[in-house]
Amino acid sequence: MPEFITTALALPGLWWLVAAIIAAGLVRGFTGFGSAMIIMPAASSVLDPFAALAFLTVVEFWGPLPNLRAALREGQRREALTLLAGAAIGLPLGLWALSLLDPAVFGWSVSLVVLTLLVLLMTGWRYGGVLAPRLVAAVGTLGGFLGGVAGVPGPPVIMLYMARALPISVIRANFLLYLLGIDVMMITVFVLFGLLDPLAVAVGLICVPVYMLANVIGARLFDPGAERLFRGVAYVVIAASAILGLPVWG
After folding, report:
1. Residue 30 neighbours by CB distance under 10 Å
2. What's the pLDDT tens digit per position in 89-106?
3. What are the DSSP calls for 180-236, one per residue?
């Protein structure tokens, strides 16, 4: 067995990561979002900040691909591109901020950011104004920044779409397109700046088949008419992951 695989399999906390990956894949396939908010608390408790982001990016890129064709058919591609244009500005700023963050507080930061954003999501706030392209791009910028600094680019966009009277199949497709675009950006930046930690990449590649299978199962469980279940499942799993990821259990 190649050395990088044996090293990855010997990583302390690997099974905690695998459990998070399974839960994240099911939720991502079912709802189209929420996976980073599940994975990052677990990854930040096992890996250092940039390695945790590298792990997340490697896993996230491949997992949703089986559902991409449906997302391209059902989603609003122009709006997804507007979000990603904003994210292209925010992501480098977030990574720069992460480079200044003490690794000792990274785990706390991720879990607390996730919990705070989750509370905002659960308040039931709804945006009733016009979604001009500038606003959509601004939301994408905020999402990109949070993706760079904490690995959770989804919540601002989740709040934007949960506030709209769109079919949940369209919301789900838009999430997938946006988050896949974020993954492509993240991989590009990490490759250009040599930030892809070899161990994180190895562990991520080991987890990819499990994550892809969980995405497929989650997508099959998706019911466009079950909006309450759609929201509730994501909220519960996100909250559990953030709480369990707090660096107080080790």
Report:
1. 25
2. 999 999 998 888 776 677
3. HHHHHHHHHHHHHTT---HHHHHHHHHHHHHHHHHHHHHHHH--TT-HHHHHHHHHH
54: closest CA among 240, 190, 214?
190
Where along the chain do its domains lie?
A: 3-244
Interatomic CA distance for residues 198 and 142, integer angstroms:
29
**151: which 2 tokens?**
């690995």
- pLDDT tens figures, 155-182: 788 777 766 667 778 888 888 899 889 9
Q: What global pTM score does this model have?
A: 0.77
**Amino acid (1-letter code) at residue 246:** L
CA distance readout (Å), 116 to 124, 147, 179, 239: 14, 15, 20, 10
CB 207 within 8 A of CB 4: no
**Spatial contact of 205 and 58, defined as CB atoms under 8 Å apart:** yes
Instruction: State the burial class of residue 175 (Cβ atoms within 10 Å of its Cβ: 0-12, 13-18, 19+).
Output: buried
Query: Cα–Cα distance between 120 and 117 in angstroms, integer?
Result: 5
Q: How far is CA 226 from CA 49, 95, 120, 135, 233, in A?
A: 36, 37, 22, 29, 11
